[in-house]
Amino acid sequence: MAKKLAVIGAGLMGSGIAQVSAQAGWDVVLRDVTDEALARGKGGIASSFEKFVAKGKLEAAAAEEALGRITTTTDLDAVADADVVVEAVFEKIEVKREIFQALDKLAKDDAVLASNTSAIPITKIAAATARPERVVGTHFFSPVPMMQLCELVRGYKTSDETLAAAREFAESVGKTCVVVNRDVAGFVTTRLISALVVEAAKLYESGVASAEDIDIACKLGFGHAMGPLATADLTGVDILLHATENIYTESQDEKFAPPEIMRRMVDAGDIGRKSGQGFYTH
Model pTM? Predict the structure, then answer.
């Protein structure tokens, strides 16, 4: 019998997780608060599948079959028979805790309750439930269909069994996992990229070097596929600002204090590729 996945949030991350899971044979229910958001999410999945078919990486019949495994709903009760629930909503602790409070009442007892957060401590999210041992972090990377990594995060009370089930799920949809054993804000990957972006932005802000040269230094000097400022533009300067603020608030470590230029760029709406302007013009 096919396993059932519920994804909460049909944005870029949620729809990407739904896509790779359906392609791997999971029955997926994708939930968001409006029909418009669901239509956008499912439309994005369909066009992503079309690109894979056009490039010869996926058979048209397989794409159609995978798309048919995804149902959409605005009803949170749809999580009731899911084996795994992945929350992929906005990075705000209050929003996530509210969702997990509801999931605690609705999901079956042995369901894995996972958060796709990139910086918020899992323990804080899990504390909103009466079953913190069943809560785990499954931090996927964008764009989910292309990126190989999934960062598994153990909350203070996450059980070995839950961690193992989360790994089994992530590996079944084609991801390679790294495990974060201690629930520090930002985990491993967000801490590393935040520290790098913050320092790169400071170098740029103080006129030490151009955005292009800072990125070339990281690409050619360290073998990075993409420089930190280009990464900020791709991810969204607003998203990275929010993540670094979360880590700084939690850790009080000065290296995560975002420089003024990042705040002003966000104030001005220069948030990267999605706005047409960030550290670069797109």
Answer: 0.91
